[in-house]
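Exercise (ungraded).
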Amino acid sequence: MFFRRRARMLRWLVCGRLGPVWMWKALLLFVAIAFAGQLLGVIFNKSSVPPAPRSVFSSPDAQGPPLGACRPHTHIMFLKTHKTASSTVLNLLYRFGEERRLRFALPPGYQLGYPLPFNAHRVKGYRGPRAVEFHILGNHMRFNKLEVEKVMPADTFYFSIIRDPVALAESSFAYYKEVAPAFRKAKGLGDFAEDPHKYYDPRLRNNHYARNLLWFDFGLDHNANFSAALAQRGEAMIRQTFKLILVSEYFDESMILLRHALCWPLDAVVSFSLNARQQKPGGLGAIGGSWVDKAAAVAGVGVRAGRQAKAPPDLSLTADQREKLRQWNALDWHIYKAFNRTFWKEVDRFGHAQMAREVALLRLRRDDLARACLRDGGKPVEAHRIRDKTIRPFQSGLVKILGYELHPGLDNATRAACLRMIRPEIQYKDVLDSKQFPRAQSVQGQAPPGPQSQGPAGVGGAPFFRQGPSRTGDKAVGRTVEEGDRDRDWDGSRLMRSNQTLVRAQEAGRLR
Ligand SMILES: Nc1ncnc2c1ncn2[C@@H]1O[C@H](COP(=O)(O)OS(=O)(=O)O)[C@@H](OP(=O)(O)O)[C@H]1O
């Protein structure tokens, strides 16, 4: 009786209160399936790459509005004129070429024999006029058409960029104040503009930075007396060779014309301004012991050991002085006006409404990329504040040249793409060089200082960005800055005497 009652109670408990058996079986099965799923999930996640987050660079916006039926140009010569936003333009050529594994015609140092006229032998790896092997030529040079044609294929697209000579003079004065004797002697740009002849001696090296610098970079005689006929001849020579002349003041419109001329996607012409000068210089206390500062010191600019820091140059100009600067740079002023007109005729042809649409898209895209890539909303920062020393921009003169910092924690692919956009010219050249000449780089890295050295790093010809603070600067040449300066140009390249002028050692035997 007692046992029967207990059994009934048990049945009631199991089947009544706790539910029927089939329910328990179903529950058990569900738990087993969930557990197996969880287990498989863990295994699956461990054994395969997690799906990559969609990079901002793979967005459909990267392409921009359609270009019609055209094939992207890959044979390009960019005449990198000085102080015209040319480093920003070169950056996009570097990026485009690197992403597509194109070959660059690179200098052994950082400039192609500048300020001497370009010579094909200045290109690293050049093997003669019939060896067609380079896609892009864009480092600083003094243009020399016949020599360039030996390096670049016949279907090369030639383009360059110009800037208002007054703005260019401000930028040049700030950057080359201690380099060009004419600027060095003047108290400020205003003083120089008042009476340039008082300061300017055409025989002195590096004075080309002080007069008709555009004209000089195009390979023309920048000291010639102005005449309308001469100016038009120079203009015609430029027109004959260069398919497009961009205007720094209209940089974004320039980028749209360039993208259509080259048949390139929108992202290829989106950039962050590089090599910008800090407009309101902070205290000079910032110039200190970093490798950038030392490199500037070795180059003979900025603060020298044991001397007082100099004040940043006075760039203020009256309206009258601005006009005087235009007259002093009359040849540049002529080509600026002429190609400015041509530029706006191109925009007319392109269509103003379409231009406005594409410029708006370009700016949106730049904002998107700045948000994705850059710290502090993309605000340029002083070199010494950039934690990653390998992306600090080269400093020249007593103004600060600004750079950028990347957002921390970017995924590898995004970081690589962002880095390309902000990597300064000198470091980027070294990256490309080491890709094109992997073996030569390791040998060059060990080489003693020699005449191959040319460029802002200059010292020893060693790649710029690889040098840590202790290896950079005066120590690398084993001489003090003052000793090292005497027979070196501002960018570290060697000079030798020829009659009364100093010329670069490497070119002396080769060029007439
Ligand atoms: N996107 C864009 N638009 C307009 N201006 C720009 C741009 N990018 C760079 N810059 C300005 O160009 C100046 C530096 O020119 P370069 O890079 O040609 O200088 S260099 O000759 O290579 O040293 C330098 O001018 P200053 O700041 O007046 O010195 C830069 O600020």
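Further reading is listed at the end of the chapter. For now, observe: DSSP finds 21 helices and eight strands in the chain. Residues 58-455+475-504 form one domain.
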